[in-house]
What does this fold into?
Amino acid sequence: MDRAPERPPDDATEGKRLRLRYAGPCVACGTNLAKGSEALYYAEARTVRCLKCPDRIADSTKPSIEGGSAGGSARREFERRKDLRQTRVKERFGNRIGGFVLAITDEPQSTRAWERGAVGEEQLAAALAQIPDLRFLNDRRVPGTRGNIDHIVVGLAGVFVVDAKRYQGLIEVRDVGGFFDSNKRLYVGRRDCSKLAENMTWQVEAVQRALDSAGVGGQAVIPVLCFIEGDWPLLFPPSVFNGVRLEGKKSIRKLLTFDRLLDDVVIDRFVGILGRAFPPK
It folds into this structure.
């Protein structure tokens, strides 16, 4: 479950040569760069890179990339809010009456939304795990922001940023404009979800910057909204809204496997780059 980040710093996108104040891994090859060593620092992507990366991409001495726990940060936020409410209620009414109040009342919708988000991410990760030749990074922190990316997926068909949503209702693109003005909006039931697509922009840009800083720019990053629940029209279901792919838990399999653009070596390299640039949250 993502949060919109603060605007990234207005530094140049080109790497700046400097001596590192802190040790860290090269985003391209994974070599650990010691404090005080010279390297290229990419301010917007918050990554560092060797001045001359070794030709080999990885070797057995480099640690594997942690896949992350799908929905982990959303579930932790749900538990934090739940515990905070329990504490407040019991402080106000006492343990006995407070316990009774908690037993007969539901958590606020704003709290339950975090649990729903966590379940959606978990279900999508389980579905992705059934797709062969696919690598994915779950619940990734975006350095320099408060935001996170639900899933970064790398496979034969390319690189995808996937946002899992567990909404109910008919998924459709409606034109709510007037007779002369078109104004297409994404709806799930009665809910205008157009901002979900807008929120994908910063996530795609962050992933693209990380790849660029590692010297593999030019690789398209495809944004995807995956609706875990919800209903699709029988005729002409929407597939794209404002450049963002619209998929379900089943249909996303075809999107992620339709093309064969990357080979295993490139997939491993991209997963290494992105796993180092976006640690588990």
The chain has one domain: 16-277. Residues 4-12, 55-63 have pLDDT under 50 and may be disordered. Residues 120 and 255 are 19 Å apart (CA to CA). Helices lie at 72-93, 95-104, 109-128, 194-198, 200-213, 252-257, 264-277.
